[in-house]
Amino acid sequence: KGIFAGAKQRFQMGVNEKGLFVASSTAGSVSLATRRYQMARRFKDAEGHFSSEWIIRHASSVAEAIGHLQVFKGYPTNFLLADAKEIALIEVTPSAKVIAVQRISNGVLTETNHYTLNSAKRFNETIGESSQARLTKIQTLLNETAKPYTHTAFIQMTQNEDDGPDLSLFRVGSKPQSPKTLSSIVVKLAAGKPAQLSLRYLPNPSYNMTRWKKVEESYPRHK
Fold first, then answer.
1. pLDDT value for 223
2. Which residues contact 107 (CB under 8 A, 6 or more apart)?
3. What local confidence, expressed as pLDDT, does residue 5 receive?
4. Counting C-beta atoms within 10 Å of the first and last residue's C-beta, which end of the chain has fewer, N or C?
5. Among residues 128, 194, 139, which one has the least CA distance to residue 167?
6. Helix 151-158 to helix 129-144 angle, to the nearest 10 degrees?
7. Residue 10: enclosing H or E segment and its boundaries?
């Protein structure tokens, strides 16, 4: 279950039947010219699946996904992975000169649209104001929120508008062409328990920014 977007319905983020969550975002801190050049150099399998969709189709855990680092190569992208045991942040620099990986089994990892891991930071060309503002906000909210975190607390974070229409975690945009929040997903994964998923999205964002659809599901996973 997850979000598929664009004219070709490419996988963006979601969780598979094995209990592996995958999300990806463009490293917008890399110039548009470089990113366009890298488009044709992205990983793609024989069936036309790019990195995120390959992982969600073929991996059952964070460890298994990281065991196929060649799948992450190419386009400047940040990936967040999670299962019931651990979470990981993977930052892929242009031409995969560096694939930086951080894995933890207790704690938090955050990511927006620029590189944050030490070995990848030097590849940031220009860090966008929104990317930095959103990263700072989510880190602040995580620090201020009582632990252990709850599913409801994470949902509330996705709807935070404290920093205005263009810099908040939930962006409505100050202008018609401004970037906007089109979807959010919160997934709770616990060993031996069904995955708990909360999905919120705009089916026709170009036409109406108010008619949100919601999906609340809890479902068993294969062993």
1. 47
2. none
3. 83
4. C
5. 128
6. 150
7. strand 10-15
Q: Tell me the Cα Rg of the chain.
A: 17
CA distance 194 to 96: 35
Residue count of the chain, please give it: 223
The backbone torsions φ and ψ at residue 8, rounded to the nearest 5 degrees and listed phi first, read: -100, 10
Whether omega for the bond prior to residue 205 falls within 30 degrees of 0, making it cis, is no
Bridge partners of residue 87, in order along the sequence? 82, 104
End-to-end CA separation in angstroms for the chain: 17
pLDDT value, residue 96: 84
Residues in the chain with pLDDT < 70? 205-207, 219-223
Provide CB contacts within 8 A for 168, sequence distance 6+.
133, 134, 137, 160, 161, 162
Half-sphere exposure of 25 (CA within 13 A, CB side): 13
Per residue in 106-136, pLDDT (tens digit) is: 999 999 999 999 999 999 999 999 999 999 9
Please answer whether residues 115 and 78 qualify as being in contact, where contact means their C-beta atoms are separated by less than 8 angstroms: yes
DSSP string for 176-193: TTS----EEEEEE--TTS
DSSP string, 152-164: HHHHHHHT--TTH
Predicted TM-score (pTM) of the model is 0.93
Structure-block tokens of residue 160: 């935070």
